[in-house]
Specification:
428 residues; alpha+beta; wza like fold; 3 domains; 5-stranded antiparallel sheet; 5-stranded mixed sheet; 7 helices; 12 strands
Protein backbone atom coordinates (compact mmCIF):
# COMPACT_ATOMS: atom_id res chain seq x y z
CA UNK A 1 0.00 0.00 0.00
CA UNK A 2 1.34 3.43 -0.95
CA UNK A 3 2.38 5.66 1.89
CA UNK A 4 0.70 9.07 1.49
CA UNK A 5 2.07 12.20 3.05
CA UNK A 6 -0.28 15.16 3.44
CA UNK A 7 1.05 18.64 3.00
CA UNK A 8 -0.66 22.00 2.85
CA UNK A 9 -2.10 23.04 -0.47
CA UNK A 10 -0.16 26.28 -0.59
CA UNK A 11 3.19 24.62 0.01
CA UNK A 12 2.54 21.95 -2.60
CA UNK A 13 1.51 24.52 -5.17
CA UNK A 14 4.78 26.32 -4.52
CA UNK A 15 6.69 23.07 -5.02
CA UNK A 16 4.90 22.40 -8.27
CA UNK A 17 5.66 25.90 -9.50
CA UNK A 18 9.33 25.47 -8.63
CA UNK A 19 9.41 22.13 -10.46
CA UNK A 20 7.72 23.70 -13.46
CA UNK A 21 10.33 26.49 -13.49
CA UNK A 22 13.12 23.95 -13.37
CA UNK A 23 11.61 22.03 -16.24
CA UNK A 24 11.16 25.23 -18.21
CA UNK A 25 14.76 26.28 -17.57
CA UNK A 26 15.87 22.95 -18.87
CA UNK A 27 14.25 23.58 -22.23
CA UNK A 28 17.58 24.88 -23.42
CA UNK A 29 19.11 21.54 -22.37
CA UNK A 30 19.07 18.49 -24.60
CA UNK A 31 15.61 16.95 -24.99
CA UNK A 32 16.81 13.37 -24.80
CA UNK A 33 17.94 11.90 -21.49
CA UNK A 34 21.33 10.28 -21.95
CA UNK A 35 22.54 7.25 -19.97
CA UNK A 36 23.96 8.04 -16.51
CA UNK A 37 21.62 11.03 -16.16
CA UNK A 38 20.40 11.23 -12.55
CA UNK A 39 16.73 12.22 -12.20
CA UNK A 40 14.42 13.07 -9.32
CA UNK A 41 10.81 11.85 -9.68
CA UNK A 42 8.01 13.58 -7.73
CA UNK A 43 4.44 12.27 -7.90
CA UNK A 44 1.53 14.22 -6.34
CA UNK A 45 -2.26 14.10 -6.66
CA UNK A 46 -4.85 16.72 -5.78
CA UNK A 47 -7.71 15.51 -3.57
CA UNK A 48 -10.75 17.77 -4.20
CA UNK A 49 -12.62 16.54 -1.11
CA UNK A 50 -9.95 17.78 1.24
CA UNK A 51 -8.41 20.48 -0.89
CA UNK A 52 -4.93 19.03 -0.21
CA UNK A 53 -2.19 17.54 -2.34
CA UNK A 54 -0.99 14.04 -1.57
CA UNK A 55 2.62 13.20 -2.42
CA UNK A 56 3.36 9.61 -3.30
CA UNK A 57 6.78 9.12 -1.75
CA UNK A 58 6.83 5.41 -2.47
CA UNK A 59 6.87 6.15 -6.18
CA UNK A 60 9.10 9.22 -6.08
CA UNK A 61 12.82 9.51 -5.46
CA UNK A 62 16.07 9.56 -7.40
CA UNK A 63 16.50 7.34 -10.45
CA UNK A 64 19.24 7.02 -13.05
CA UNK A 65 19.01 6.37 -16.76
CA UNK A 66 20.57 3.00 -17.43
CA UNK A 67 23.00 2.23 -20.22
CA UNK A 68 20.17 0.76 -22.31
CA UNK A 69 18.21 4.05 -22.11
CA UNK A 70 15.62 3.00 -19.51
CA UNK A 71 14.65 4.04 -15.99
CA UNK A 72 13.19 1.86 -13.24
CA UNK A 73 10.03 3.24 -11.60
CA UNK A 74 8.38 1.40 -8.71
CA UNK A 75 5.08 -0.27 -9.67
CA UNK A 76 5.61 0.56 -13.34
CA UNK A 77 8.89 -1.25 -13.95
CA UNK A 78 11.28 -0.11 -16.68
CA UNK A 79 10.36 2.75 -19.01
CA UNK A 80 12.30 3.59 -22.17
CA UNK A 81 13.34 7.24 -22.29
CA UNK A 82 14.52 7.35 -25.90
CA UNK A 83 13.23 10.52 -27.52
CA UNK A 84 11.78 11.81 -24.24
CA UNK A 85 12.71 14.92 -22.33
CA UNK A 86 12.02 15.51 -18.62
CA UNK A 87 8.48 16.86 -19.27
CA UNK A 88 7.58 14.08 -21.68
CA UNK A 89 8.91 11.41 -19.31
CA UNK A 90 6.87 12.87 -16.44
CA UNK A 91 3.72 12.84 -18.58
CA UNK A 92 4.40 9.24 -19.62
CA UNK A 93 4.82 8.15 -15.99
CA UNK A 94 1.54 9.93 -15.04
CA UNK A 95 -0.29 8.24 -17.90
CA UNK A 96 0.97 4.78 -16.93
CA UNK A 97 0.13 5.33 -13.26
CA UNK A 98 -3.44 6.24 -14.21
CA UNK A 99 -3.79 3.05 -16.21
CA UNK A 100 -1.96 0.86 -13.71
CA UNK A 101 -3.88 2.05 -10.67
CA UNK A 102 -7.26 2.65 -12.39
CA UNK A 103 -7.43 6.31 -11.42
CA UNK A 104 -10.07 8.68 -12.77
CA UNK A 105 -7.53 11.47 -13.06
CA UNK A 106 -3.84 11.06 -13.76
CA UNK A 107 -1.53 12.23 -10.97
CA UNK A 108 1.02 14.98 -11.53
CA UNK A 109 4.45 13.42 -12.17
CA UNK A 110 7.42 15.76 -12.56
CA UNK A 111 11.00 14.93 -13.52
CA UNK A 112 13.90 17.09 -12.42
CA UNK A 113 17.44 16.53 -13.73
CA UNK A 114 19.73 16.27 -10.70
CA UNK A 115 22.99 15.54 -12.48
CA UNK A 116 23.93 15.21 -16.12
CA UNK A 117 26.57 12.77 -17.41
CA UNK A 118 29.98 14.44 -17.71
CA UNK A 119 31.55 15.60 -20.92
CA UNK A 120 35.06 14.48 -21.80
CA UNK A 121 37.82 16.62 -23.30
CA UNK A 122 40.91 15.05 -24.90
CA UNK A 123 43.66 16.07 -27.30
CA UNK A 124 45.80 19.21 -27.29
CA UNK A 125 44.52 20.64 -24.00
CA UNK A 126 46.31 21.42 -20.78
CA UNK A 127 44.21 19.18 -18.50
CA UNK A 128 42.35 16.46 -20.40
CA UNK A 129 39.66 14.61 -18.47
CA UNK A 130 35.97 14.60 -17.60
CA UNK A 131 34.03 17.68 -16.53
CA UNK A 132 30.52 18.29 -15.22
CA UNK A 133 27.96 19.12 -17.89
CA UNK A 134 25.80 22.24 -17.64
CA UNK A 135 22.86 23.10 -19.90
CA UNK A 136 23.94 25.38 -22.71
CA UNK A 137 27.56 24.24 -22.56
CA UNK A 138 29.52 24.74 -25.77
CA UNK A 139 32.86 23.50 -27.04
CA UNK A 140 34.65 26.68 -25.92
CA UNK A 141 33.28 26.16 -22.38
CA UNK A 142 34.69 22.64 -22.29
CA UNK A 143 38.03 23.92 -23.62
CA UNK A 144 38.14 26.51 -20.83
CA UNK A 145 37.42 23.87 -18.18
CA UNK A 146 40.31 21.78 -19.58
CA UNK A 147 42.74 24.65 -19.10
CA UNK A 148 42.80 25.78 -22.72
CA UNK A 149 45.12 24.63 -25.45
CA UNK A 150 48.65 23.46 -24.76
CA UNK A 151 51.05 26.38 -24.70
CA UNK A 152 54.68 26.25 -25.82
CA UNK A 153 56.64 27.40 -22.80
CA UNK A 154 59.57 29.14 -24.42
CA UNK A 155 60.45 31.05 -21.27
CA UNK A 156 60.70 27.82 -19.26
CA UNK A 157 62.95 26.25 -21.89
CA UNK A 158 65.19 29.32 -21.99
CA UNK A 159 65.57 29.32 -18.22
CA UNK A 160 66.48 25.63 -18.42
CA UNK A 161 69.21 26.41 -20.93
CA UNK A 162 70.59 29.16 -18.71
CA UNK A 163 70.55 26.81 -15.73
CA UNK A 164 72.41 24.15 -17.68
CA UNK A 165 75.05 26.68 -18.75
CA UNK A 166 75.48 27.74 -15.11
CA UNK A 167 75.75 24.12 -14.00
CA UNK A 168 78.34 23.44 -16.69
CA UNK A 169 80.45 26.41 -15.60
CA UNK A 170 80.22 25.26 -11.99
CA UNK A 171 81.27 21.73 -12.95
CA UNK A 172 84.27 23.11 -14.84
CA UNK A 173 85.39 25.02 -11.76
CA UNK A 174 84.88 21.97 -9.55
CA UNK A 175 86.91 19.82 -11.95
CA UNK A 176 89.81 22.30 -11.83
CA UNK A 177 89.80 22.27 -8.03
CA UNK A 178 89.49 18.50 -7.88
CA UNK A 179 92.38 18.05 -10.34
CA UNK A 180 94.62 20.37 -8.29
CA UNK A 181 93.60 18.64 -5.06
CA UNK A 182 94.35 15.24 -6.61
CA UNK A 183 97.85 16.42 -7.63
CA UNK A 184 98.50 17.65 -4.09
CA UNK A 185 97.39 14.36 -2.52
CA UNK A 186 99.41 12.34 -5.02
CA UNK A 187 102.56 14.35 -4.20
CA UNK A 188 101.91 13.99 -0.49
CA UNK A 189 101.38 10.24 -0.83
CA UNK A 190 104.60 9.86 -2.81
CA UNK A 191 106.54 11.90 -0.24
CA UNK A 192 107.62 14.61 -2.68
CA UNK A 193 108.86 17.92 -1.43
CA UNK A 194 106.56 19.92 -3.67
CA UNK A 195 103.41 19.42 -5.74
CA UNK A 196 103.69 18.30 -9.34
CA UNK A 197 100.63 19.80 -11.07
CA UNK A 198 99.46 18.40 -14.45
CA UNK A 199 100.07 20.43 -17.58
CA UNK A 200 96.38 21.23 -18.17
CA UNK A 201 96.40 23.44 -15.07
CA UNK A 202 97.74 26.62 -16.66
CA UNK A 203 99.27 28.79 -13.94
CA UNK A 204 99.02 31.82 -16.24
CA UNK A 205 95.24 31.78 -15.77
CA UNK A 206 94.54 33.96 -12.70
CA UNK A 207 91.67 31.76 -11.56
CA UNK A 208 93.76 28.58 -11.83
CA UNK A 209 96.74 30.32 -10.22
CA UNK A 210 94.61 31.03 -7.14
CA UNK A 211 93.57 27.39 -6.93
CA UNK A 212 97.19 26.18 -7.23
CA UNK A 213 98.35 28.60 -4.56
CA UNK A 214 95.66 27.39 -2.16
CA UNK A 215 96.71 23.78 -2.70
CA UNK A 216 100.39 24.68 -2.12
CA UNK A 217 99.49 26.29 1.18
CA UNK A 218 97.48 23.26 2.25
CA UNK A 219 100.34 20.97 1.17
CA UNK A 220 102.89 22.97 3.16
CA UNK A 221 100.69 23.11 6.25
CA UNK A 222 99.99 19.37 6.20
CA UNK A 223 103.64 18.43 5.62
CA UNK A 224 104.81 20.77 8.38
CA UNK A 225 102.25 19.37 10.80
CA UNK A 226 103.25 15.80 10.00
CA UNK A 227 106.94 16.54 10.28
CA UNK A 228 106.43 18.27 13.65
CA UNK A 229 104.68 15.21 15.04
CA UNK A 230 107.33 12.97 13.57
CA UNK A 231 110.13 15.12 15.03
CA UNK A 232 108.47 15.14 18.45
CA UNK A 233 108.23 11.37 18.59
CA UNK A 234 111.81 11.01 17.29
CA UNK A 235 113.14 13.34 19.98
CA UNK A 236 111.19 11.44 22.62
CA UNK A 237 112.73 8.16 21.45
CA UNK A 238 116.20 9.71 21.54
CA UNK A 239 115.52 10.94 25.09
CA UNK A 240 114.60 7.45 26.18
CA UNK A 241 117.72 6.06 24.51
CA UNK A 242 119.88 8.55 26.41
CA UNK A 243 118.12 7.63 29.63
CA UNK A 244 118.79 3.95 28.99
CA UNK A 245 122.48 4.66 28.36
CA UNK A 246 122.70 6.56 31.66
CA UNK A 247 120.93 3.78 33.52
CA UNK A 248 123.27 1.21 31.96
CA UNK A 249 126.30 3.19 33.16
CA UNK A 250 124.76 3.49 36.61
CA UNK A 251 124.07 -0.25 36.64
CA UNK A 252 127.75 -0.94 35.84
CA UNK A 253 128.88 1.34 38.66
CA UNK A 254 126.46 -0.24 41.14
CA UNK A 255 127.66 -3.69 40.12
CA UNK A 256 131.28 -2.75 40.92
CA UNK A 257 130.26 -1.13 44.23
CA UNK A 258 128.23 -4.20 45.16
CA UNK A 259 131.17 -6.49 44.39
CA UNK A 260 133.52 -4.43 46.59
CA UNK A 261 130.92 -4.29 49.38
CA UNK A 262 130.59 -8.07 49.23
CA UNK A 263 134.34 -8.47 49.52
CA UNK A 264 134.37 -6.15 52.54
CA UNK A 265 131.56 -8.12 54.21
CA UNK A 266 133.47 -11.37 53.62
CA UNK A 267 136.66 -9.91 55.11
CA UNK A 268 134.92 -8.49 58.17
CA UNK A 269 133.13 -11.79 58.71
CA UNK A 270 136.49 -13.54 58.94
CA UNK A 271 137.78 -10.93 61.41
CA UNK A 272 134.70 -11.30 63.58
CA UNK A 273 135.15 -15.06 63.53
CA UNK A 274 138.79 -14.55 64.65
CA UNK A 275 137.68 -12.04 67.31
CA UNK A 276 139.55 -9.18 65.66
CA UNK A 277 136.42 -7.14 64.68
CA UNK A 278 133.16 -6.32 66.33
CA UNK A 279 129.74 -7.51 65.21
CA UNK A 280 128.52 -3.91 64.80
CA UNK A 281 131.15 -3.32 62.12
CA UNK A 282 129.91 -6.40 60.29
CA UNK A 283 126.32 -5.14 60.52
CA UNK A 284 127.29 -1.81 58.98
CA UNK A 285 129.02 -3.52 56.11
CA UNK A 286 126.03 -5.80 55.48
CA UNK A 287 123.63 -2.82 55.54
CA UNK A 288 125.72 -1.03 52.90
CA UNK A 289 125.69 -4.18 50.77
CA UNK A 290 121.89 -4.43 51.07
CA UNK A 291 121.46 -0.78 50.06
CA UNK A 292 123.58 -1.29 46.97
CA UNK A 293 121.63 -4.36 45.97
CA UNK A 294 118.38 -2.36 46.38
CA UNK A 295 119.81 0.44 44.22
CA UNK A 296 120.73 -2.10 41.55
CA UNK A 297 117.13 -3.42 41.58
CA UNK A 298 115.69 0.10 41.30
CA UNK A 299 118.05 0.86 38.45
CA UNK A 300 117.01 -2.34 36.70
CA UNK A 301 113.33 -1.41 36.99
CA UNK A 302 114.03 2.11 35.71
CA UNK A 303 115.93 0.66 32.76
CA UNK A 304 113.06 -1.67 31.90
CA UNK A 305 110.59 1.23 32.10
CA UNK A 306 112.78 3.38 29.85
CA UNK A 307 113.08 0.56 27.30
CA UNK A 308 109.28 0.15 27.37
CA UNK A 309 108.85 3.86 26.77
CA UNK A 310 111.33 3.67 23.93
CA UNK A 311 109.34 0.86 22.34
CA UNK A 312 106.10 2.86 22.76
CA UNK A 313 107.70 5.86 21.10
CA UNK A 314 108.83 3.68 18.22
CA UNK A 315 105.32 2.27 17.83
CA UNK A 316 103.79 5.76 17.98
CA UNK A 317 106.19 6.91 15.28
CA UNK A 318 105.36 3.93 13.08
CA UNK A 319 101.61 4.44 13.73
CA UNK A 320 101.94 8.11 12.80
CA UNK A 321 103.51 7.16 9.49
CA UNK A 322 100.91 4.44 8.82
CA UNK A 323 97.98 6.69 9.76
CA UNK A 324 99.29 9.49 7.59
CA UNK A 325 99.78 7.14 4.65
CA UNK A 326 96.32 5.59 5.12
CA UNK A 327 94.65 9.01 5.47
CA UNK A 328 96.27 10.36 2.34
CA UNK A 329 95.47 7.15 0.47
CA UNK A 330 91.79 7.31 1.42
CA UNK A 331 91.58 10.98 0.48
CA UNK A 332 93.31 10.20 -2.79
CA UNK A 333 90.84 7.44 -3.67
CA UNK A 334 87.87 9.59 -2.63
CA UNK A 335 89.07 12.51 -4.71
CA UNK A 336 89.66 10.27 -7.73
CA UNK A 337 86.07 8.97 -7.47
CA UNK A 338 84.76 12.54 -7.05
CA UNK A 339 86.69 13.69 -10.14
CA UNK A 340 85.29 10.80 -12.18
CA UNK A 341 81.74 11.74 -11.12
CA UNK A 342 82.37 15.37 -12.00
CA UNK A 343 83.66 14.40 -15.44
CA UNK A 344 80.60 12.20 -16.02
CA UNK A 345 78.28 15.00 -14.90
CA UNK A 346 80.11 17.43 -17.14
CA UNK A 347 79.67 15.13 -20.12
CA UNK A 348 75.97 14.57 -19.37
CA UNK A 349 75.34 18.28 -18.80
CA UNK A 350 77.11 19.15 -22.04
CA UNK A 351 74.86 16.79 -23.96
CA UNK A 352 71.77 18.13 -22.20
CA UNK A 353 72.84 21.68 -23.02
CA UNK A 354 73.24 20.83 -26.68
CA UNK A 355 69.77 19.27 -26.71
CA UNK A 356 68.34 22.29 -24.88
CA UNK A 357 69.88 24.72 -27.36
CA UNK A 358 68.46 22.65 -30.21
CA UNK A 359 65.08 22.57 -28.48
CA UNK A 360 65.14 26.34 -28.05
CA UNK A 361 65.79 26.71 -31.75
CA UNK A 362 62.86 24.40 -32.52
CA UNK A 363 60.66 26.40 -30.16
CA UNK A 364 61.53 29.58 -32.00
CA UNK A 365 60.60 27.86 -35.24
CA UNK A 366 57.36 26.69 -33.63
CA UNK A 367 56.66 30.24 -32.52
CA UNK A 368 56.87 31.36 -36.14
CA UNK A 369 54.34 28.73 -37.22
CA UNK A 370 50.65 29.46 -37.60
CA UNK A 371 48.67 27.23 -35.27
CA UNK A 372 44.90 26.64 -35.29
CA UNK A 373 42.61 24.29 -33.38
CA UNK A 374 40.15 21.84 -34.85
CA UNK A 375 37.27 20.36 -32.85
CA UNK A 376 35.28 17.18 -33.17
CA UNK A 377 32.44 15.80 -31.02
CA UNK A 378 32.01 12.07 -30.51
CA UNK A 379 28.39 11.34 -29.56
CA UNK A 380 26.13 8.33 -29.22
CA UNK A 381 23.38 8.44 -31.85
CA UNK A 382 20.86 5.64 -32.13
CA UNK A 383 23.11 3.48 -29.99
CA UNK A 384 26.10 3.96 -32.27
CA UNK A 385 29.11 6.29 -31.81
CA UNK A 386 29.24 9.14 -34.32
CA UNK A 387 31.88 11.81 -34.96
CA UNK A 388 30.63 15.31 -35.70
CA UNK A 389 32.62 18.30 -36.89
CA UNK A 390 32.32 21.18 -34.44
CA UNK A 391 33.26 24.77 -33.81
CA UNK A 392 33.88 26.72 -30.64
CA UNK A 393 30.17 27.59 -30.34
CA UNK A 394 28.81 24.09 -31.00
CA UNK A 395 26.38 23.02 -28.28
CA UNK A 396 27.32 19.93 -26.29
CA UNK A 397 25.14 17.07 -25.10
CA UNK A 398 25.64 15.13 -21.87
CA UNK A 399 28.20 12.36 -22.35
CA UNK A 400 29.84 14.02 -25.37
CA UNK A 401 33.57 13.63 -25.95
CA UNK A 402 35.31 16.71 -27.33
CA UNK A 403 38.50 16.04 -29.24
CA UNK A 404 40.84 19.00 -29.76
CA UNK A 405 43.54 18.73 -32.41
CA UNK A 406 46.19 21.25 -33.37
CA UNK A 407 46.80 22.12 -37.00
CA UNK A 408 50.22 23.62 -37.69
CA UNK A 409 51.14 25.47 -40.82
CA UNK A 410 54.91 25.78 -41.51
CA UNK A 411 56.44 29.25 -41.17
CA UNK A 412 57.42 31.32 -44.14
CA UNK A 413 60.93 31.04 -45.52
CA UNK A 414 61.84 34.51 -44.26
CA UNK A 415 60.73 33.67 -40.70
CA UNK A 416 62.71 30.41 -40.79
CA UNK A 417 65.84 32.21 -41.97
CA UNK A 418 65.49 34.80 -39.20
CA UNK A 419 65.17 32.12 -36.50
CA UNK A 420 68.04 30.02 -37.78
CA UNK A 421 70.27 33.06 -38.17
CA UNK A 422 69.57 34.18 -34.60
CA UNK A 423 70.09 30.67 -33.24
CA UNK A 424 73.36 30.28 -35.06
CA UNK A 425 74.68 33.48 -33.53
CA UNK A 426 73.60 32.39 -30.11
CA UNK A 427 75.17 28.97 -30.50
CA UNK A 428 78.53 30.36 -31.44
Amino acid sequence: MLKVQRVSRALMLGALLATTCLSTSANGAPEELAPQTKLRLTVVQFVPSTGDYQRWDALGGDVEVAADGTVMVPTLGTIAVAGLGPEQLGAEIARRLKLKLGLLEAPDASIQVVEYPPVYVVGNVTNPGQYAFRPGMTVIHALALAGGENQIETATSLSGTIRLETDLNGLGSDILRSTARLARLDSEFAGRGEIEFPAELDANDPRIADILEQERRIFTARINGYERQQAGLTQLAQLFEAQIDTLDQKAHALEEQTARAQQQVDAISKLVAAGSATVSRLSDAERILADLRSDRLDNLLATMSARQNLNNAGRDLARLEDDHTAEVSIQLQTEQAALERLLLNQDATTRLLRQSVEFDRNLKLAGAMRISLNYAIMRQQNGQPATLDATEVSTLMPGDLVKVTMQIEPPTSSATAAVLGGSGAGSN
